[in-house]
Amino acid sequence: PVYLDYNATTPVDSRVLEAMLPWFSEHFGNAASRTHLYGWTAEEAVATARKQVAKLLKTNLKEVVFTSGATEANNLAIKGVFEKYSYKGKHIVTVATEHKAVLDTCHHCEQLGGEVTYLRPDTNGLITPQQVAEALRSDTILVSVMYANNEIGVIQPIREIAAATHAGGALFHTDATQAAGKLPIDMAEEGIDLLSLSAHKFYGPKGVGALAVRQGVELTAQLDGGGHERGRRSGTLNVPGIVGLGKACELAQKEMNAEAERLCRLRDRLEQEILANVPHTFVNGKASQRLAHLTNICFEHIDGENLLLSLKDIAVSTGSACTSASVLPSYVLKILGLTDDQAYASLRFSLGRFTTEEEIECTIQHVIETVERMRVGSAV
Ligand code: PLP
């Protein structure tokens, strides 16, 4: 089988695994144990990882809070700001095509008396800084806009959106789960106050991530207890996971440019060959600036479920893995204007570090033959 679902998750890079291994049994100390060498050693490893994350985001290392992943980071950012700043206002602005980890957290705030504006993007998934500016009110405390979309890869104009947010006196959060480690990010320069990321999307382990918080931004903790992470997230730190996240950041920083170039070439070939050889296809979000390693292609007049089943040797997805338990068509694609049938018949191909040219050639052939076979006998 060919794995082209890197946006769902990535394998742990062997260099990351190697860095993690000593931290399970050999150096097993609790990073919060301040009275002996076991604790100090673990604390040092966590400090190194914190520097590696901070370096990737060009931020201050005091600003990194380790979490169990991006879902938790998004919850901490949104609920944490909502609780802390509700004395100023209870209005949040976000986008209808955000990940459920943002949307459902916003719904939670609504149940607590918050008001949320869900901006609608254009047919390519983009929103504009003007839309944000127009949505801001005197009681807006937070704007949350994802850096790059997990389904179609569209990259939002983050710097301009952050500037519009600040002009309105609110804080700016971005769910950068699909962008961190893939795109160069400079939190300070781009004006990002809070940023969520997850290790398993860029060759680190699952179940670990971080929320980077600009100095001066306050948050109400969502996990109370021993006061870890400067009181922002209690719970004994997952030292091997955090070491893995740090290593993944270090590797990404060194390799992201060359990797993006290579993957863009492969992605373009895959996309062009499919579009040229399979009639009735189009790319979702193509006209926007988008991630280099991903294409989301609609195969019109084809039953999406059958297509996925027929392509079972190629691991791709419809919608996002996180909501695949539901049989509903992708809400992201529907917001772009696709019909239910078009959304069901759209496949996301996401490439990654270990994708080879041969795999792409094999995928091209397989997709062309499969769709041709499925269309035989049908009118289109
Ligand atoms: N945000 C986005 C944009 C994602 O793509 C994902 C994962 O699919 C998440 C958040 C959730 O991340 P995690 O799996 O670390 O909880």
TrEMBL record:
Entry-linked InterPro entries: Aminotrans_V_dom (IPR000192), Aminotrans_V_PyrdxlP_BS (IPR020578), Cysteine_dSase (IPR016454), PyrdxlP-dep_Trfase (IPR015424), PyrdxlP-dep_Trfase_major (IPR015421), PyrdxlP-dep_Trfase_small (IPR015422)
Q: Keyword set for this entry?
A: 2Fe-2S, Iron, Iron-sulfur, Metal-binding, Pyridoxal phosphate, Transferase
Quote the Gene3D superfamilies the UniProt record gives. Answer: Aspartate Aminotransferase, domain 1, Type I PLP-dependent aspartate aminotransferase-like (Major domain)
The keyword Hydrolase belongs to this UniProt entry's keyword annotation: no
| Any one GO MF annotation of this record | metal ion binding
Keyword Acyltransferase among UniProt keywords:
no
NCBIfam families xrefs = PRK02948.1
What protein name does the entry list? cysteine desulfurase
What organism is listed for this UniProt entry?
Runella slithyformis (strain ATCC 29530 / DSM 19594 / LMG 11500 / NCIMB 11436 / LSU 4)
Q: What is the lineage of its organism?
A: Bacteria, Pseudomonadati, Bacteroidota, Cytophagia, Cytophagales
